[in-house]
Each structure stands twice: as C-alpha cells, then as structure tokens.
Design brief:
4-stranded antiparallel beta sheet
Length: about 90
C-alpha cells in the first residue's frame, strides 16, 4: 500500500493535514505521488505546486519535501505544504 501524508504548516503549526492511500499496484511511483498530490490539492483547495529540482532531490533522498510560496502560482496563506511518504510498497 502506498501512503503519503500532506500537511499545511504556518508558524510551525499544522493547520490541516491528510493521508492519501492508494493500492493500485499498476501505477508507477511517480503516478502514485501525482495522484496523492492531486487529491490533496482538491481537499486543501490549492493550485498544484510546481516540482522544482530541489523538491525532486529532497523527495528522492528523504521521501519528503516542502512546497513554499515559490512553488505555487497563486498566493498562499501558509508557510509551506509538506508531503512525506509513509509507506511505499508498490507490489501486491
């Protein structure tokens, strides 16, 4: 089961969070992450963040990354959106 935790943080406090689970083993890891972010953006009412090189490196190395204001086209009212992989088992 693939699980990704997303949280919106402002002034070191979690304003909102959610966990997305996906058991579709036919999807690639990248597709699983994109699906989870899509679902989070709908739930949090956000535009989709832009994956910068920094985000790719962080997520590959630590299975987590933060999206600050420079990752969004629209203004945000929080400090950052952080995503963290909780479980990555892409096989039955």
């Amino acid at each position: 089961m693939f699980r990704l935790w997303g949280k919106i943080v402002k002034d070191h406090h979690i304003l909102d969070d959610m966990t997305v689970e996906n058991g579709n083993y036919a999807l690639s890891d990248e597709e699983l992450v994109r699906d989870a972010i899509d679902r989070m953006c709908v739930r949090f009412d956000l535009s989709h963040p832009i994956w910068l090189a920094k985000n790719r490196k962080e997520f590959a190395a630590r299975h987590r990354t933060r999206f600050a204001a420079d990752s969004f086209i629209d203004p945000i009212s929080f400090d950052y959106l952080e995503i963290q992989m909780l479980e990555d088992i892409n096989m039955p």
